[in-house]
Amino acid sequence: MQSPQGGRIILDGKEVVNMASNNYLGLANDPALVRAAQSAIEQYGVGPGAGRGIAGNFPAHNELERELAAFKAAEATLAFNSGLTANYGLIPTLAGKGDTVYSDELNHASIIDGIRLSRSEVKVFRHLDMNSLEEQLRQPASGKKLVITDGVFSMDGDLAPLPDMVQLCRRYAARLMVDDAHGDGVMGRGGRGTVEHFGLVGQVDVESGSLSKALGAVGGFVAGPAELVEQTRSQARSFIFTSSPLPPAFAAAALAAVRILAASDERVKKLWANREYFMGRLKELGFNTGSSKTPIIPVYAHDEEAARQLSLRLYEAGVYSQAMTFPIVPRGQARLRVIVSAAHTREDLDLTVAALAKVGRAMKLI
Fold it and tell me: Which of 72, 145, 213, 344 is catalytic?
């Protein structure tokens, strides 16, 4: 990478259409975020020097957590240095040895590792299969019950059936945690997330999220009841024991992004207009895009070498999209993960479609 993130980037000296980034709203190089980060660096320096429990919170931390909570319609939020460490800290706070956690088989690696750190018993249910989840919830289990799911699944672009999950959790006295790293800034009214998309605000026990994707900055967060967030602040090892908490510059940049989204849904609308246009063109060509319902669109090649060749040939044609192969995805499901952004122009999308059509026909994928 030799340029900022955007609809087009300079990669190894070549300008290409960027279809590989989680920069859904094009905020990663937005002037407001850049100015906010620069100002925070000038005022507070670069590194925080120690964990927030030792060195203290910068004003940007407090402002970000307050305004992010309002945006998410949550009582409180707690910012981490990444979405991964947010899950590492939150899950062992929610469940421990002697408890039972129910996890979708395609949940993100940070969820899987967070469950391991909790030392809870884990039961894995089939992807999006509520009969599978209910069958496991119905069985005798030790301790507290916790169901965890991604809101938007990062490789398939499909959605968790949250209304059904809320009902099952009520029926079987389980808590529900949603990792909405790919839903925040993308799903729901003005990008408020997958929980809001389904009209379930206040009905999901806790969420984790990302500041590094649609919000264009760096970091992660936990959002939920104030008591639970405060418990996480005091117990989450990935929050307490790091000397690299969220730097004030990134907190300030994330705060600028939250304010942009709170003020206008223009970028979210542009993202979805681009997604619908691009998906329609792929469907016309006959590509297999699986069950995607979001700006994450898999283009299946199935064979791993075919997926790598598809990525390479697209790069030669001026489009960058990375091949996803085992162990990132199951064997036999190799694909390109194509991600649409509000930063893309119609010309960018048309160029990508033309390149995919040419290469796809040559490789007999369509």
Answer: 213
